[in-house]
Specification:
Layout lengths: L17 E7 L5 E10 L4 E10 L7 E2 L5 E7 L5 E7 L1 H4 L33 E6 L7 E2 L9 E4 L5 E7 L3 H11 L12 E2 L3 E2 L5 E7 L5 E8 L12 E2 L6 E5 L12 E5 L7 E2 L6 E7 L5 E7 L9 E6 L5 E3 L15 E4 L2 E7 L4 E7 L6 E2 L9 E7 L5 E8 L2 E8 L11 E2 L15 E8 L5 E8 L11 E7 L14 H6 L4 E6 L8 H5 L8 H15 L3 E11 L1 H12 L5 E5 L5 H4 L6 H8 L6 H6 L13 E6 L7 H13 L4 E6 L9 H17 L6
Parallel strand pairs: 33-34, 33-35, 35-36, 36-37, 37-38
Antiparallel strand pairs: 1-2, 2-3, 3-4, 5-6, 6-7, 7-8, 9-10, 10-13, 11-12, 13-14, 15-16, 16-17, 17-18, 19-20, 20-21, 21-22, 23-24, 24-25, 25-26, 27-28, 28-29, 29-30, 31-32, 32-34
Helix pairs in contact: 5-6
Length: 693
């Protein structure tokens, strides 16, 4: 195997940009988008907001730089853009800028400063850019605990925000904790990954006047819980009479994943519950005529069942699914959007891809769109304009992920109708560093067809007599899926001559309920078979070297990695990243007790089940050199899990290394640590590669 490609250096991650949010202007002529970038000098990943014309005629204009920003939302007339931002320097300045104040720098962020939304910095507030007058953004909210969501009122003069509002006693307790006082918790959900230790502070809705910043709390709109898992998600009706929000107002909200849909008047009266606590509900959005509300709903006790798009009558609450017949889950970021009073569009997960679908609000009669999409690119986000004429979307393939736009009536076009709006990673990769891409299928040990996405070195030749090493990289979830994607990891590996296999194992979504539920109630057998048989399939095709197979996975992928090395020595080396390996010990120390109980029961009632699903039970069978990583403050997959696995493997004389990322949660945030992670994996595999030993 000859590899003449220059390897993509780890330091190139500082140049890597990811588009994570989009918002199309009401007239469809502009799109605001959020891009995550690295600031090398500060060693931070920051979200920045840009605006660009949807016809691609001009380069995007940067609105923010020095602080973390996101959630762009256009005012109804399109003259203003609201965002959330945690801007440290501006918090120290007067909230109300002088009349006709000029921006302090051309990037609109008041100069240097800001901490990227870190744990000890300022909280997210709502800021508004006047795109007609120009100048810097104006701070609209000043909540001590920050805001968790907002929406414009239809008159453009008010916004509704969701924000925690501690009592005096709760605020005093928080101050004591900040001063290193004891943490005292009576709640069941005692911590949430990324948010920290929980308390009893309640989140409320506030109606805020944009000009005066005067806020009115809606006392009856609260869900009794703070943290990103249960956002109120306010949505203001087109006629201004009601605000929809999500909440669970029953007994012990910490012991359920259900959320209901409510509406309330802007003066805080007339709260009405529209659903019946049978779904985990999210992303409510009003029809243009205000008669109906669409939302995403799923089973709160069984996340393997595909989520669906529902439409509810805004008065009676009577609802029905408009996507059930497809047997496909709603893609992350692909929630429903109205294009007229009777029609919606959404992005659904379909056989290892994310694709747009048109939905009839009156019944379950969906139609797939975008025949021009192909099977090598995915629609990551979709947002139509308020007039239903134009739409922006994020399209990802192995070479790039960018913002595009099209006329809504061109979704059915045979030829590609997209206008490219951004080229955010232009110049990141040399031409010969862009991975090739193939979809492959094979039969697993049970005779079931499994699909995998394969990223190939540039110039890959299947007839090459010298096959490539392979990295089997396992996705998390497990209720997730791999679709064609542009990311940093894939070209990093392929530019070094590796083939990368991403297996959509049993339990993955996008292939229907039956396929996803095959994993329910089990761990460490079916998905292991699917991954291992996928590597065997690539060996049989002559693409990869049988003796140079490596394995890694993050989160549930880490769980699968550990389970795999307890059952086979198929791999030369493996890396289990941020996983759970003893489910009994994890119960109550992670933040997933509801999920574990719903799937496996309680550990003291079903101890044998918890033993069977834990890779530590069979850790004595591990012969594979194992790298184990964790975040020091990961409360989804606690670092103690990684410690247990490392010590257990090392005790047997098997080569093992433990890497703990200080102050990191479940995901790795700082660029230098992201670079360390990928380089550590590469070094581990290289050190245990039979071809280099």
């Amino acid at each position: 195997m000859a590899n003449d490609t220059d390897p993509l250096p780890g330091e190139a991650f500082y140049e890597y940009t990811a588009v994570v949010e989009i918002a199309t202007s009401p007239d469809g002529e502009r799109v605001a988008f959020v891009a995550t970038e690295s600031e090398e000098a500060e060693d931070e990943r920051r979200r920045s907001v840009f605006v660009a014309p949807t016809d691609g005629s001009e380069e995007p204009h940067r609105l923010t730089r020095a602080s973390d920003a996101g959630s762009p939302a256009w005012s109804p007339d399109g003259s203003k853009l609201a965002i959330t931002a945690a801007r440290e320097q501006d918090v120290e300045l007067a909230v109300e800028p002088p009349e006709d104040a000029e921006a302090e720098d051309e990037n609109g962020d008041g100069g240097e400063g800001g901490n990227g939304g870190g744990d000890d910095g300022p909280e997210d507030q709502v800021w508004v850019f006047d795109l007609v007058r120009g100048g810097d953004a104006r701070q609209i909210t000043d909540r001590s605990e920050g805001v968790t969501g907002f929406d414009w009122g239809p008159d453009g003069e008010r916004i509704v925000v969701a924000a925690p509002d501690p009592t005096d006693e709760e605020a005093a307790y928080r101050d004591r904790v900040d001063d290193d006082g004891p943490i005292e918790i009576e709640r069941l959900q005692h911590k949430v990954n990324g948010s920290g230790w929980t308390d009893t502070v309640t989140a409320y809705l506030f109606v805020v006047d944009v000009e005066s910043r005067e806020a009115t709390r809606l006392d009856r709109a609260n869900d009794g819980e703070m943290g990103s898992r249960r956002p109120l998600a306010p949505a203001w009706s087109p006629d201004g009479d009601r605000i929809a929000f999500t909440a669970y107002l029953g007994e012990n909200p910490d012991d359920t994943m259900a959320l209901d849909l409510y509406t309330i008047r802007p003066d805080g009266t007339g709260r009405e519950r529209l659903t019946d606590a049978e779904r985990r509900l999210q992303a409510p959005t009003w029809s243009p005529d205000g008669e109906r509300i669409a939302f995403v709903g799923g089973d709160p006790t069984n996340w393997y069942i595909p989520t669906e798009v529902f439409v509810a009558d805004a008065g009676s609450g009577e609802d029905h699914s408009v996507s059930a017949s497809l047997d496909r889950t709603v893609a992350w970021g692909g929630g429903p959007e109205w294009i007229d009073d009777d029609t919606l569009v959404a992005v659904l997960a379909d056989e290892g891809n994310s694709s747009p679908v048109r939905l009839d609000a009156d019944g379950d009669d969906p139609a797939w769109l975008a025949p021009w999409q192909g099977d090598d690119r995915a629609i990551r986000a979709l947002d139509p304009s308020a007039d239903g004429e134009r739409a922006a979307l994020v399209v990802s393939d192995p070479a790039a992920a960018d913002v595009y736009a099209l006329d809504v009536d061109a979704f059915d076009a045979a030829d590609d109708p997209l206008d490219r709006v951004t080229t955010v990673n232009e110049g990141l990769l040399d031409e010969d560093q862009v991975p090739g891409f193939e979809r492959v299928t094979w039969e697993n040990g049970d005779g079931i067809e499994i699909e995998g996405l394969v990223y190939l070195p540039s110039g890959f030749d299947s007839d090459d007599p010298d096959p490539h090493p392979v990295v089997a990289s396992v996705h998390g979830g497990p209720m997730s899926y791999d679709a064609p994607a542009f990311g940093f990891d894939f070209p990093y590996w392929t530019s070094r001559g590796y083939v990368v296999l991403r297996t959509n194992y049993r339990g993955s979504t996008s292939y229907g309920r039956e396929f996803s539920e095959r994993l329910r109630g089990t761990r460490g057998e079916k998905e292991v078979d699917d991954v291992v048989s996928g590597v065997d399939h690539l060996v049989d095709r002559g693409w990869v070297d049988d003796s140079r197979a490596f394995l890694t996975g993050f989160s549930y992928g880490g769980i699968t990695t550990a389970a795999t090395v307890t059952s086979t020595d198929r791999f030369s080396a493996a890396a289990a990243e941020h996983g759970v390996y003893d489910f009994h010990a994890a119960f109550g120390t992670d933040d997933n007790h509801n999920w574990h109980e719903d799937e496996f029961g309680l550990p003291w009632e079903n101890p044998e089940t918890y033993r069977e699903i834990s890779s530590l039970t069979d850790v004595g069978d591990v012969d594979t050199p194992l790298l184990v990583t964790a975040g020091e403050r990961d409360w989804r997959c606690p670092p103690t899990q990684a410690e247990q696995l490392h010590v257990s493997v090392k005790k047997q004389g098997v080569d093992s290394k433990l890497v703990i990322y200080r102050d990191e949660h479940h995901d790795i945030g700082d660029p230098d640590r992201a670079i360390h992670r990928i380089e550590e994996l590469a070094a581990w595999f290289d050190d245990h590669d039979p071809a280099t030993e």
